[in-house]
Design a protein that fits this description.
single chain; 441 residues; alpha+beta; four-stranded antiparallel beta sheet; 13 helices; 19% strand
């Protein structure tokens, strides 16, 4: 039973304070009238152990994830104990993490409060209510380290209905949530599987599988593919260290011609957010670092394998730790990019990297990377097919990410409707819930 001193003179919420209309046989009450609230207390480190002696000790939100309790400490002399079936709520630091306790006894710290429903409140229903109001509780947090008080929980307006109605609502919500969770699992699988599917597409591209029909139609054979070093199909260079120190570093400015650094080259994409520039009046004096035309850019220190195409549509300069690969007229830049991003190309690159504290690869090693080269026309067909397949995969990934973003909002909407009596579960003939409340006060 809740402590009498924490039950207001009237447990019923005045009409002017009621958040929204509810069915006539429900009633608005203070949350304090249907729960007992147990505050946690911190225990001295010397009272705790990591040997499993005593009862589990929950320190805070970090111990709660996906409705599971990660036990790190135990205590033989508990300070504040919660029981099996209590709802644990994180109230300091990270506010709003919830856990229905499965353990017989747990010692709770000051970062946790335990909500213990009375006999007229279904514990799963209480959990769903707390899930609904968690955003409000987080907003109530204040101070350098956010925290909520007992009053923030106890004074909450709570829509009370009969126990059978509570059970019907819980069953309806669990059924709807199960369907959403199934959809979420499928959508997450699409998102998580993107890289694997992309790898499979590129593997088929460079084993010749994607263009098998095209070769038959054009009288070309797979044995016509040649293996060539990148240095034989492209001009590969970098800005020497002394050149950067002598010519680039002293001229770096906050505006002007952008300077490509390693962070501007990601897998397949250049990142056009620059932090360093070369003044325009100095740019023409630094021809060796200029990016004059379409080429591949690749970091040679840092994350090896981050390769992207610079399209040559604007003036730019090479910065430190970035090399350029200027492809000759017999090969498509896009083809080489896809090859180097495939498992074949990645293995070629990484087997050349140096065993140092920071990943690195020499420009000469890049020149020696072997690439499988079909005819120019087949390269064009491979790029066309890969572009099309990856575009479809990206669309599927974006659609799955949109579903994931919507599911949490849909769950909140279901909870909001449930506590308004809008899920079609209410039986108007059932007794007014206020009479139920009076039996325990």
């Amino acid at each position: 039973m809740p402590k009498k001193k924490e039950i207001p003179a009237s447990p019923f919420v005045p009409e002017k304070e009621q958040p929204y209309p509810i069915p006539e046989n429900w009633c608005w009450v203070r949350f304090s009238s249907v729960i007992e609230l147990i505050s946690g207390r911190d225990a001295a480190v010397t009272d705790c152990n990591s040997k499993g002696i005593g009862i589990p000790y929950i320190l805070g939100a970090s111990n709660i994830a996906n409705n599971t309790f990660n036990i790190e400490r135990w205590i033989e002399t508990p300070q504040a104990v919660s029981n099996k079936g209590d709802i644990l709520l994180s109230v300091k630091g990270t506010i709003g993490k919830l856990y229905i306790q499965k353990e017989d006894k747990v010692n709770i710290s000051r970062q946790i409060m335990a909500i213990r429903p009375t006999e007229i409140l279904n514990k799963k229903f209480a959990y769903l209510f707390l899930l609904l109001v968690c955003d409000e509780l987080r907003e109530a947090g204040n101070g350098l380290i956010p925290g909520i008080s007992r009053a923030d929980i106890l004074d909450k307006a709570f829509p009370l209905m009969s126990l059978p109605e509570q059970q019907r609502i819980v069953a309806r919500i669990e059924s709807l949530f199960a369907k959403l969770d199934e959809a979420k699992e499928k959508a997450q699988a699409v998102v998580d599987g993107f890289e694997l599917r992309k790898s499979a597409i590129l593997h088929k591209a460079f084993t010749g599988e994607l263009t098998e029909r095209w070769r038959k139609e054009h009288g070309v054979e797979l044995k016509d593919w040649k293996e060539k070093e990148i240095g034989k199909i492209a001009f590969v260079t970098k800005l020497a260290g002394f050149e950067y120190t002598k010519n680039i570093a002293p001229n770096i400015a906050e505006s002007g011609i952008p300077l490509f650094k390693g962070k501007n080259v990601q897998k397949g994409n250049v990142v056009l957010e620059f932090e360093s520039y070369i003044p325009e009046n100095v740019s023409d004096e630094l021809p060796r670092s200029q990016l004059r035309r379409k080429c591949l850019l690749t970091p040679y220190v840092g994350t090896i394998g981050n390769i992207a195409i610079f399209d040559g549509s604007f003036k730019a300069h090479l910065g430190s730790n970035v090399g350029k690969i200027e492809i000759n007229s017999d090969t498509f830049e896009e083809y080489v990019l896809y090859y180097l991003r495939s498992d074949f190309g990645y293995r070629e690159l990484t087997k050349q990297k140096k065993a140092t504290a920071q990943e690195s690869i020499s420009i000469q090693a890049i020149r020696e990377v072997i690439v499988k080269i079909p005819t120019l026309f087949e390269q064009q067909e491979i790029v066309h097919i890969v572009d099309s397949l990856l575009d479809k995969e990206r669309q599927a990934q974006s659609a799955a990410e949109a579903v994931l973003a919507q599911i949490d909002a849909m769950k909140k909407a279901i909870l909001a409707r449930a506590f308004r009596g809008e899920l079609g579960t209410n039986h108007p003939a059932e007794e007014w819930s206020g009479a139920l409340l009076k039996t325990i006060l």
